[in-house]
Design a protein that fits this description.
single chain; ten-stranded mixed sheet; eight-stranded mixed sheet
């Protein structure tokens, strides 16, 4: 079996289907994809709204209260139930079942079913006092937290596990008292840091391990009392650290700028891959035979290709392809997102505990489904209609044949036969409501040109009471009255024009818990709204893409002459011959070293 070059029917770029891909397709009996892996991810992400929340009325029988929902009032989803009612036994999604119509394209029929079946307003389980959160498990006293589990007293954060007393955190696990951290694990009292583990009582760390009482440091291991990588005695450290006043916004802004420049003076490892074998991608742990995979934050996974965010915490993820958010021992996921515990789920979204499921959405504890929505504890259903096992197994091949004979064509002329995920126009969400905008940001014009819906910002009825320049520079000068103010986001000009493409809310308020945190930890008030702050954190992560590059170690120093090696490398004074695939694009300013050269400098 040989590699085969294909043209993606979405982006029109060429991509390669490798022999390993063909073997996977054969194993699960699906045709080769006509979309490239990156476009498949983009399409999957278009079905996940994490952060866009709206107020609308609950449509559950006997309930008309206003609820917070990820589906706006003008959504094509006709009915939204409070999630507690949705999970109850007070209604049955089989009542929306319908006969399959062989005179109408399959995806057109699925779209009608999706619009009619009620959906839960948000995804929450075992949470207390955390109404403004989505996709959370075990949240207590949290606000605007998304995609998180076992969290407490945490605000404005995403993708967390076992976190408490934190603000503005992204992709972090097992931590307490953190602020503006990205991909930091097992921390205590850590601020403004990235890609660091087991660090405490520190701020402005990057790629550090086991450090405490450090400030502005890069690539340190098991160090104490360092400031901008320079060692101090304990007494000198506490005397020197007083010079850095994080309570002043002007001073904090300068420190941030200085630290960004300082990071560029040290080598970066080509990829953050640890305890892994025969794997490519970035931010991988406990991976085996993983190709082009990203962001495995917990557990192990193996024999996967083009999988983002596998999390096999209890049991390894195996044999999955072109998927996102595959969790807890899942195997054979293909072109699917948010699939947890089970096997053989294709072209589906949000399937928790299930197997042998195709083209379905938000179904739980089910098996043998085709084109179903919102089912629980069901089997052998098509378009939410119950069949016997024999009827089901006879009808599914007929539908697949019909999908190929009468394919669906979207507004941009893209053709969807059996073997392709749902088209963009079938998603309940607009492009800029979803994480597609976070991973593959587009302008409104670009999105609409590519056939994605775009949601205009809602009209705001508030009156700005403070502009960023009117806020006190120092946190010690902030009075309690700030809690009553509506603060204009710094990304908004005086003419009320938003200057970013970051889902800016144009204004924000400071909540009491937030103000207490800033005061207690001597941190200046933010000038950006929570959404814009979230996007600043996202910018610290590399894209879901790999480039072929050479190590930038030229022998005794880096190619650009900025970094002087501290030890002799295996290639002595010659240029390192190693090449690799990295998520650092060639035009980036960072100094990128291979594994061997990097380890010589930081371990």
């Amino acid at each position: 079996m040989k590699s085969e070059a294909k043209q993606c029917q979405n982006c029109k770029n060429e991509f390669t289907i490798e022999p390993e891909d063909f073997l996977f397709y054969e194993k699960i009996k699906v045709p080769a994809s006509t979309w490239c892996p990156e476009c498949i991810w983009q399409l999957l992400f278009l079905w996940r709204n994490e952060r866009s929340l709206y107020k609308r009325k609950c449509n559950a029988p006997g309930h008309e209260e206003e609820i917070i929902s990820i589906f706006p009032p003008d959504s094509e989803i006709n009915s939204v139930y409070d999630y507690k009612f949705w999970w109850s036994d007070n209604w049955d999604s089989l009542q929306y079942g319908r006969e399959y119509n062989f005179s109408e394209p399959f995806l057109q029929q699925f779209g009608k079913l999706l619009a009619s079946v009620p959906q839960p307003n948000v995804i929450q389980t075992n949470s207390i006092n955390s109404e403004y959160c989505n996709s959370v498990l075990g949240a207590k006293n949290c606000y605007l937290v998304f995609a998180a589990s076992r969290i407490e007293n945490t605000y404005y954060s995403s993708w967390l596990d076992e976190i408490r007393d934190c603000l503005d955190i992204l992709w972090s696990h097992h931590g307490e008292l953190g602020y503006e951290n990205v991909l930091c694990n097992d921390f205590y009292k850590l601020f403004f840091s990235g890609f660091s583990e087991e660090c405490s009582e520190s701020a402005f760390l990057w790629d550090c391990r086991g450090c405490s009482y450090c400030f502005g440091c890069v690539g340190l291991r098991n160090k104490q009392y360092h400031i901008f990588n320079k060692p101090y005695s304990k007494e000198e450290y506490f005397s020197k650290i007083k010079e850095y006043n994080l309570g002043s916004f002007a001073e904090l802004s300068k420190i941030k700028k200085d630290f960004q420049e300082f990071k560029l003076k040290y080598p970066h490892k080509y990829a953050r891959i640890t305890n892994s074998v025969n794997s490519t991608g970035d931010n991988l742990k406990n991976a085996k035979n993983a190709f082009y995979c990203f962001d495995s934050t917990m557990g192990a996974f193996e024999d996967c290709r083009y999988v983002a965010v596998p999390f096999g915490k209890d049991e390894a993820i195996k044999d999955s392809h072109s998927s996102f958010g595959v969790g807890h021992g899942f195997s054979f996921a293909y072109q699917s997102a948010s699939v947890i515990t089970g096997s053989s789920v294709f072209f589906s979204k949000k399937i928790w505990t299930g197997y042998n499921i195709q083209y379905s959405y938000n179904c739980h504890n089910c098996h043998d489904l085709f084109a179903c929505v919102g089912l629980r504890n069901k089997s052998y259903c098509i378009l939410n209609k119950q069949y016997s096992k024999e009827e089901y197994e006879k009808l599914v091949p007929q539908i697949i044949d019909h999908m190929n004979q009468m394919p669906y064509t979207d507004s941009k002329g893209r053709i969807y036969r059996y073997g392709e995920f749902f088209p963009p126009e079938r998603s309940p969400f607009a492009y800029n409501e979803t994480i597609a905008q976070e991973y593959f940001p587009l302008t409104k014009e670009q999105a609409e040109q590519q056939g994605y819906r775009w949601k205009e910002p809602e009209t705001k009825n508030y009156q700005i009471t403070k502009t960023p320049d009117q806020l006190p520079d120092h946190i010690k000068d902030v009075k309690d009255g700030i809690l009553n103010d509506i603060i204009q986001c710094a990304h908004v000009t005086t003419s009320q024009v938003v200057t970013c493409n970051e889902q800016c809310t144009t204004a924000f308020r400071i909540i009491p818990q937030e103000l207490e945190f800033y005061r207690k930890n001597n941190i200046a008030l933010p000038r950006l709204c929570p959404n814009c702050r979230h996007y600043q954190r996202l910018k610290q992560r590399n894209p879901l893409k790999l480039w072929q590059r050479k190590c930038q170690c030229s022998g005794t120093k880096s190619d650009n002459g900025i970094y002087q090696n501290q030890t002799n490398h295996f290639h002595q004074d010659q240029h390192c011959p190693n090449e690799f695939e990295t998520s650092y694009a060639p035009e980036r300013q960072e100094i990128v070293y291979c594994e061997e050269c990097y380890q010589q400098e930081v371990v």
